[in-house]
Every structure is written in structure tokens, then in C-alpha cells.
Specification:
Layout (H helix, E strand, L loop, with lengths): L2 H6 L1 H32 L2 H29 L12 H29 L6 H23 L4 H29 L5 H28 L9 H9 L4 E11 L5 E9 L5 H17 L4 E7 L6 H9 L2
Parallel strand pairs: 2-3
Antiparallel strand pairs: 1-2
Helix pairs in contact: 2-3, 2-5, 3-4, 3-7, 4-7, 5-6, 6-7
The structure holds zinc ion (2 copies).
């Protein structure tokens, strides 16, 4: 995003950050109500949903924090800006959800054998609030535009279904004495949480390891670069991503002949067009003229004994 873009979107960013901040505080307050409610009613299913909502609160808090950070842009120390901070956030989120899941399983698994008697009417009240809160949030976000809003709506639908399941179990428990249903539902909800956390973690690992991002081919970019007029070969080419979305390309270009200033500018213009076509936002390219020894191979030779 250029400086001009940042200025025109400034107002939009402020309101977006405000909305996310609001969602964060609402979600966090409701999560606290759930933990206390789960403890008071003795329902492990509600505790499981509380862990899920703790994860949601963390996601909102993280989005809110980064929305504000991204307004600040890059700094002297964090010269790339704060894109990579979202990776740290994803890692923390996975740790919180895994820790929370272990906590719920420790509570729920022994109750599969020896179920207590959860307070069914208390559970009904909490489940009704849960369905209501998530349904309201879903209807509100459903009206906004954009890919992100659609994903959030889908997620909130999952949350509504989760609370509906708690409601069904609570109503059944009011009329029949099948207390094992509560820990069973808790284990089911926890497995869904764990599966999601592990899936997120797995998609983050290649970004940590600076793998070539999905949806772009290093081979194709190198082939296109070698197809540029005056380019003999390409080496030391890398494509990686800071946050899993934005892509960075670096390479050395060996030229067939020396270029004057005008041809040099034209080559740079073509490289810029090439990387843009491949969806790469940021590129750094080193030029080598015929007969020039590559700095990298030279440094390697010096390191060898
Ligand atoms: Zn959720
Ligand atoms: Zn080189």
C-alpha cells in the first residue's frame, strides 16, 4: 500500500479497528461469563465452549492490535513492518487453544465414566444467551461486504450450532437422567477445537520455514525472468512470504551484455511487471554483467578452507 492509499483509507481503518475492538470486549466478557457459568452448573460442555470463545476473543484481540499496529507502519527496528507479528499471534493462539483443550479433557474424560449431575436449567439459560449473542453477531456481520466478513459469518454459524447442541443436551437433561451426554458433548466440541488449532498450526509452519508460498511457482517466475530480453540466466532465486499472504522475490540476473542507463531502466520496468503478474508485492534483484563473478559464489569460495 502506498502512502497515498494509506491516507485515503485512514478513516476506514479507524472504524474497522473500533468495530474489532468492540467485538473483542464483548467476546471476552461473554467468555468470562461462560467459564463461571460452566463451573457453577458443573457442565463440561459449557467449559468446552468457553475455551472455544477464549480462542475467538484472542483472535479478535490480535486482529484489533494488529489493525492499530499496521497504521503505525514500519519502524527503524522492524524494517519490514509488523506483518510477521501475525505469525507469532497464530502460534500463541494455537498454544492457548491446545492448553484449554487439555484442561477441558482432564475435566470431561473422567465424567464419561462417573458423570456428575449438571444443573440443566442453568445450562439452558447459558445456552440461550450463547445462541442469542452469536446469532446477533452473525446477523450484524452478515450485512457487511468482503471475503473476511463472509468467513467470520461462517465461523459464527459454527458457534451458533455449538450452542444449539448445548441447548438440546440441556433440555434433554431436564427431562431424562442421561448426565453422560454433557461430557460426551464436551469431548466432541474439544476435538473440533483441537483439529482447527492443529490445522492452523500446520498451515503456518511453511511460512515460518520460508517455503515458496502456495499459488506461486518459483520455477515459472525464473523461467519468465530468463525469457526477458538480454537475460542469460537467473540464480539464487527465492520466493517467500512474511505472513502467508504477501510475497517477496529476490534473485540474481546474469545479463548477456552491459546495458546503458536507458536499457537498464527498461529491464527494471519489465521485472516489475513480471513479478506483479505472478502476484508478488515486493522484489529485490541483483544484476550481473558478463564476466562478473557472483558475490555469493565468491563469498562461498572464501569460506572454504
Ligand atoms: Zn467461535
Ligand atoms: Zn549471483
Amino acid at each position: 500500500m502506498s502512502a497515498g492509499d494509506a491516507q485515503t483509507h485512514d478513516h476506514h481503518h479507524h472504524t474497522a479497528a473500533g468495530n474489532i475492538g468492540m467485538a473483542f470486549f464483548l467476546n471476552l466478557s461473554f467468555t468470562l461469563v461462560e467459564f463461571v457459568g460452566g463451573w457453577l452448573t458443573g457442565s463440561t460442555a459449557i467449559l468446552a465452549d468457553a475455551v472455544h470463545d477464549l480462542g475467538d476473543s484472542f483472535a479478535f484481540g490480535q486482529a484489533w492490535y494488529f489493525e492499530r499496529l499496521s497504521l503505525a507502519g514500519q519502524s527503524e527496528r522492524y524494517s519490514y513492518g509488523y506483518r510477521r507479528f501475525s505469525l507469532v499471534g497464530a502460534l500463541l493462539s494455537a498454544l492457548i487453544l491446545t492448553g484449554g483443550s487439555v484442561f477441558v479433557l482432564v475435566q470431561a474424560v473422567p465424567r464419561l465414566v462417573d458423570p456428575g449431575t449438571p444443573d440443566a436449567s442453568g445450562m439452558v439459560v447459558l445456552a440461550l444467551i450463547g445462541v442469542g449473542v452469536n446469532l446477533l453477531a452473525m446477523l450484524r456481520i452478515g450485512k457487511t461486504e468482503g471475503m473476511n466478513a463472509r468467513l467470520v459469518t461462517l465461523h459464527l454459524l459454527e458457534d451458533v450450532l455449538g450452542w444449539a447442541a448445548v441447548l438440546v443436551v440441556a433440555v434433554v437433561l431436564m427431562f431424562w437422567d442421561i448426565p453422560v451426554l454433557d461430557p460426551l458433548l464436551a469431548v466432541a466440541i474439544t476435538l473440533v477445537i483441537l483439529f482447527g488449532a492443529l490445522r492452523n498450526l500446520r498451515s503456518m509452519l511453511p511460512v515460518f520455514l520460508q517455503a515458496v508460498p502456495e499459488g506461486v511457482s518459483l520455477e515459472a517466475v525464473v523461467r519468465d525472468a530468463e525469457g526477458l530480453e538480454g537475460v542469460r540466466a537467473v540464480h539464487s532465486a527465492h520466493i517467500w512470504s512474511q505472513d502467508g499472504r504477501q510475497k517477496v522475490f529476490t534473485a540474481h540476473l546474469e545479463l548477456e551484455r552491459e546495458l546503458d542507463a536507458c536499457a537498464y531502466t527498461e529491464l527494471k520496468r519489465r521485472i516489475a511487471g513480471l513479478v506483479r503478474r505472478h502476484g508478488i508485492e515486493h522484489s529485490t534483484v541483483e544484476i550481473e554483467y558478463p564476466g562478473e563473478v557472483c558475490r555469493i559464489t565468491e563469498e562461498k569460495k572464501e569460506e572454504e578452507p
